[in-house]
Amino acid sequence: MMQSKLASMALKGVLACGLFLGALLLSFAASAQQAAPSLPLLFDARERLAKPDLSSLVRLRFLTSVDFPPFNFTDQNGKLSGFDVDLAREICGELEISDKCEIQAIPFADLKDALAASQGDAVIAGLAVTPELRRQFVFSRPYLMLPARFVRNLAAPIDGKTAAALSGRPVGVVRGTVHETMLAAFFPALKAEPFDTKEALLAALKERKVDAAFADALQLSFWVSSPASAKCCALFDGPYLSEHFLGEGMTIMLRQKDSVLTSAIDHALAALSRNGRLQEIYLRYFPYGLY
Fold first, then answer.
1. Longest CA pairwise span in the chain (Å)
2. What pLDDT digit, counting tens, does each position of 224-270 carry?
3. Given its phi and psi angles, is residue 24 left (phi above 0), alpha (psi -120 to 50 degrees) or beta?
4. Is the C or the N end of the chain the one with fewer CB within 10 Å?
5. What Gene3D superfamilies does the database record attribute to this sequence (predicted)?
6. Count of CB atoms within 10 A of residue 192's CB?
7. CA pair distance 34, 111, nearest whole angstrom
């Protein structure tokens, strides 16, 4: 997964439309249909991360791309926008260095080399954490986890509100994905029906050739709220998180020598998580929720 995005797990296609069995599996009882879907706190409320002295910092240059909406994209006015862009600005505000901050968009394929060459100080662009990247760079604490979810056809007579109610029923999944492996590992009683593409899976769900599907919550949340679904379906149970299957989540990548800056960004992320600003950004770009 060299130079891969979290989009590599079937994210980018939907969002660009306008894209170890013992591993800990967490299920947060939340619904995408809530008026104010909540964002799980990734920082312990009792944890206090020191705020390093950045008075000697000349500038902080965030690098991102423009091909991963709603995380980063160019809006109708040609302005760089997105969840990651707004978060970078909030980090700078929290660290009281807004006047020293810059956000630059470059091609995704160039991000790693640009950071290594000190053409920027931090990459915030949905890069998946890999062992190879960890040998060269350091990463902030995660600021957003991307769960897996079920989605059900509302016409299917499913009696219950948990995955157990799907036992024996056809549940679609995209063949060869981490979600297919995760479904088999954690829900062996379910009758998996593999499809070759995401589009084929969603079409089968809409036509009720399967009663439910299991996939990435990010793509599903956008689909169920879009005209493409024709209000046929709704998110169901979960969400489900597994670092083994789904990775470490959304992080910021920095050079190994920049330990002070990494600590400062972790401090800012923790503060934004606790004071509600991270939740505000989340709701701005994910009004229907992932959790």
1. 63
2. 999 999 999 999 999 999 999 999 899 999 999 999 999 999 999 99
3. beta
4. N
5. Periplasmic binding protein-like II (3.40.190.10)
6. 16
7. 36
What pTM was estimated for this model as a whole? 0.82
Contact 168, 113 (CB under 8 A): no
What's at 243, amino acid-wise?
E
Buried b (16+ CB within 10 A) or exposed e, 142-173: bbbbbbbbbbbbeebebeeeebebbeebbbbb
Q: Is the dihedral of CA 190, 178, 70, 204 positive or negative?
A: negative
Q: How far apart are CA 92 and CA 102, in angstroms?
A: 9
201 C-beta neighbours (distance < 10 Å), count: 26
Q: What is the pLDDT of residues 53-67, one digit of tens each?
A: 999 999 999 999 999
Q: At what angle do helices 83-94 and 277-285 cross, to 10 degrees?
A: 170
21-32 residue pLDDT tens: 233 233 333 333
Report d(CA 149, CA 220) in Å as an integer: 8
The amino acid at 156: A
Contacts of 68 (CB under 8 A, 6+ apart): 5, 7, 11, 12, 15, 16, 19, 82, 108, 125, 126
Crossing angle of helices 259-275/277-285, nearest 10°?
Answer: 80
